[in-house]
Amino acid sequence: MSVNVKEEPVVPNCDVDNTELAVFNGNGESELEDFGTRIDVITERVNQLEQRVVEVEQFYSTKDGAAQTNTSKSNSGGKKVAISQPNTSKCNSAGKAKSKGKHVSSPELMRQFATIIRQITQHKWAWPFMEPVDVKGLGLDDYHKVIEKPMDLGTIKTKMEASEYNNVREIYADVRLVFKNAMKYNEEKEDVYVMAKAVLEKFEERWLTIMPKLVEEEKKQAEEEAQDHANKKLALEAAQADKARDLSNELYEIDLQLERLRETVVQRCRKLSTQEKKGLSAALGRLSPEDLSKALKMVSESNPSFPAGAPEVELDIDVQTDVTLWRLKVFVQEALKAANKSSGGTNAQNNNNAGEINKNNAKRRREISDAINKASIKRAKKA
To answer: CB 3.0–4.6 Å: which of 164, 179, 205, 245 could bond 159 by disulfide?
Structure first.
């Protein structure tokens, strides 16, 4: 990138005294304190906004915005922030947390199923299954080795009365378990096996009568849960969008405050002299390509029509605002200082290398001279 500056570079210097930024009219010290206070206020506000920005970023970087807590993302200060999201788990009407994927049967369906249970318990062959198996009294030493989960109709009835079941499928599973246990432990030819099989068949027949209603109810509840989940997700996303919009507005306001503060500082400082502008022009030409791009970007910030990214640009120092000139002057000073420090270290290394080379050359010259002298002496003796 090449830059043509509309100023004669007669002054090859752009040193900026730090005190120049503090040259105010009137009581400079008190005004500096006022500016310092205003900067502190803005800094504190930025720190407060920082965590809120991280929370919004964390929400949108998490799949579906559903993570309850995630501290993987750090803010610019290196701190990890725990982000807590609202709990969207659904509870049943009794206030108990519903198990994941479990359908909660309606009271009407539970009453219908209770009627089926009463009919089964009144079956003429249901009496062996009304109480827990008397393992000790019947001498069934291997019963618990064969049957992993004992169950009986009396226990099921007690659990139903205590509302320990959430849905009829849970009760259905326990009722089948009663008869399956009996059929598993007893041989097919034994009476208990035959009775269990007969009662189970009757129970399955009754079960089929409520299946259509159960399926319809489960489908409806699944749709309601899906809609509820979607509504909560939309509400959460809307809340995050509102937060992001508020943050954007607040950050924009802070940018305006900083810009006004910067303009105020520059207005209270003296204007750059013609000589300083010439020095600034010359100094811009000594910047590295990277620093020159940054300087041109500063110009484009106050002058959007300035083609900062063009291969070749023409910069007219005289038409730049005081704010831009002071920003350029401070930036150029710091950039050249950094470049001088870097080149100084390189020059020192080069000087050391050159000194070492000179030392080696002098040593070599002495060796050659000694060799010549020795040769001369030998020839003289021979003569």
So the answer is: 164
Q: Centre a 10 Å sphere on the Cβ of residue 109 and count the other Cβ atoms it contains.
A: 19
Position 77 pLDDT exceeds 90: no
Identify the bridge partners of residue 5 per DSSP, sorted by sequence position.
315
Q: What digits encode the pLDDT tens for the residues 265-323?
A: 766 667 888 888 888 888 888 888 888 888 888 888 878 788 877 778 888 888 888 87
The amino acid at residue 98 is K
On the 0-12 / 13-18 / 19+ scale of CB atoms within 10 A, 70 is middle
Closest CA to 272 of 9, 87, 4, 23: 23
pTM for the complete prediction?
0.44
Question: What b/e sequence results for 301-318 when a residue is b if at least 16 CB atoms lie within 10 Å of its CB, and e otherwise?
Answer: eeeeebebeeeebebebe
245-262 residue pLDDT tens? 888 888 888 888 877 777
* Terminal-residue alpha carbon distance, the chain: 73
CA distance 44 to 40: 6
Mean pLDDT score across all residues of the chain? 76
Long-range pairs for 263-271: beta carbons < 8 A, 24 or more residues apart:
263/323, 264/35, 265/21, 265/35, 266/322, 266/323, 266/326, 267/322, 268/24, 268/25, 268/31, 269/20, 269/21, 269/22, 269/23, 269/24, 269/322, 269/326, 270/20, 270/23, 271/322
3-state secondary structure of 93: coil
Comparing CA positions, the residue from 16, 187, 167, 34 lying closest to residue 98 is 167
Q: How would DSSP label each residue in 83-115?
A: --------B-TTSPBPPTT-----HHHHHHHHH
